[in-house]
Amino acid sequence: MGMIFKISAGSGFLHVSATGEFSLGEAKRTFLEVLDALARHNLEKVVIDGRKLTGEPKTIERFYYGEFAAQAVASFRGVSRASKFAYVLEPPVLDPGRFGETVAVNRGMNVKAFENLEDAFGWLGLAPAKKPDEVDA
Length: 137
What we know:
Blueprint: E1 4-9, E2 14-21, H1 24-41, E3 45-54, H2 59-75, E4 84-88, H3 99-106, E5 110-114, H4 117-124, E6 133-134
Parallel strand pairs: 2-3, 3-4, 4-5
Antiparallel strand pairs: 1-2, 1-6
Helix pairs in contact: 1-2, 2-3
């Protein structure tokens, strides 16, 4: 089973729900869709809820994804470099050492990984939302 993403617009933020088996190629492709939705809705905050993702990304995949995401944010027209990305993941998709996060941050991306939604919303300066309205990705 591949990765399945649902992109929704909340009040002042974008909510992305991800399920299925982690795939670097699908994660990169979908990240571009997230950036497109950010630009279309003129938003600068994103919660990516990947707690239902499975798999165990290799260290090199974490590196490539972090590098890709940071470069994409820096070059995507209509997306601010100040945009904040909160990833909510569970091990083993979530790396306890936060290697992918470090790679992206070192390249200028404003990103942080969390184990729960409450901390992610707090970091973004948002109150936990009810259910956002679905957005066409």
